[in-house]
Amino acid sequence: MSLLEENKIVKVAQLSRDLNVTEKTIRGDLETLEERKLLKRVHGGAILPEEDHRILPIAERQSGQNEVKHAIAAKALELISPGETI
Length: 86
Hints:
Radius of gyration: 23 Å
Mean pLDDT: 88
Number of strands: 3
């Protein structure tokens, strides 16, 4: 897992050589780690699982973080002059 986190991808053949175990052993270990949702197996190796980047519905985005949004708007007002467009 540390190699995967460092390199973002690992290859079965390379892991087999580096760890001095069979590729079958590596594939089995990767399968177990995938079942635990720690990685995603791909052809010949594994990658880190994709994070959930789904965009929230517009109503949820608009209703959240209001204090932060108002602070950003106030700062933006300090930086623009009448007639300017952002």
